[in-house]
TrEMBL record:
Organism, as annotated: Rhizochromulina marina
Main subcellular localisation: plastid
Keyword tags: Chloroplast, Plastid, Ribonucleoprotein, Ribosomal protein
Domain (KOW) ranges: 3-30
Protein name: KOW domain-containing protein
Cellular compartments annotated: Plastid, Chloroplast
Domain of life: Eukaryota
Biological process terms in GO annotation: translation
Origin organism lineage: Eukaryota, Sar, Stramenopiles, Ochrophyta, Dictyochophyceae
Keyword S-adenosyl-L-methionine included in the entry's annotation: no
Amino acid sequence: MAILKSGKVVIILAGRHAGKKAVVVKTHEDGNDDKRFSHCLIAGIARGPRKVTRGMSKKKVEKRSRSMKPFVKYVNVRHVFPTRYQVDMDLKKAVDEADLLNEEKKVEVKKNLKKIFEDRYLNQKNVTSEKKAAGSNYFFQKLRF
């Protein structure tokens, strides 16, 4: 029984992005030739959107949401903490594993991720189910501890 299915929101426990939230894109339960341990491909937010209040104009809200900075990487399953939240962003199409090997293509992948994350952040109201809405709301909030 796999807990880390694609779309699951996780918190990273180790490394440069420790304490940041990410979404599982793909999981390799038994590892592969390159990495002989169970690992998963995750896409997350290195720098979240800035604070928005009700009094701000639409233009200002959009500008503040543009500060998001995504990251994409492979992580050992032991270094992620699964949360109860699920997100329905379709990241499998945006993140192609072959593109991550080439540095220029990885930059393009990050740009696409930024667009997807911004779009979801600005349009959180029209999410299909309430469970997924709660997940995307949690994903974009700063981790409080």
